[in-house]
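User: I'm new to structure prediction. If I give you an amino acid sequence, what do you actually give back? Let's try with this one:
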Amino acid sequence: MSFKRTVAVLTLAALAALPLRADAPQNTLSEFDQDVAQTLLDHPEILLAVFEKLQAQEMAEKSAADAALIDQHYDTLFGAIEPHQPVLVEFIDYACGYCKAAFEHVQTLKDNEPDLIVKTIQFPILGEGSTLAGAAALVIERSFTDHIDLFHETLMHLTAPLSERTIRIALEELDLPAQIILSAARAPDIQNQIAQNRTLAARLEISGTPAFVGRSQILRGMSDAQTLSALATSSTTPNQPQS
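Assistant: Good question. You get back a string of structure tokens that encode the predicted 3D arrangement of the chain. For your 243 residues, that looks like this:
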């Protein structure tokens, strides 16, 4: 049972145990059950303590489940990166406003952690424009490696909606061969990589962007630089890495 549902059940149980009016007929609960319910209503801090413990337990279970998922896909996520190396894997969509906001936090983290490795996984989920942008980034990463960081930054700062036209303009402004890159972005091998990225995200129970993966934890959604730093510098490694 989820934390929110547990809260609702316990609260309703406590309220249901007492009559609504002083002259209302007694319910069918035993005297002991009514005493418990009255105690909870008289001392709501008990419920709060219970709720906090349930929430902590739920979070611990989720953290353990995420660690197991990372363990299963460790090689795919981290490859040959040294175990001591701080690393952050980010799942992004260039059409995602939260990804653009998180970009600034990631840049701050990179400035503060010179040894940090940031691995970007293209996970376009917001339409044809974001899919083409993600595919173009894969082409640049493979064939125009020196330009990938600048292209990434350009799209993260882009305010216009993503389309073939706006992507082409961005490429041309960087003096990159737009037509060659856009054609290659539609090639089967690049599209297959996008599909593999989506499959990996699904297996990690990532359904939105941004998402961040460290060696032992997954953060789904927006995070600040301090939180990302703690994630990236985690030294936990699996016992038996698997792809």
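You can read the tokens as a compact description of the fold. Here is one thing that stands out. The first strand starts at residue 87 and ends at 92.
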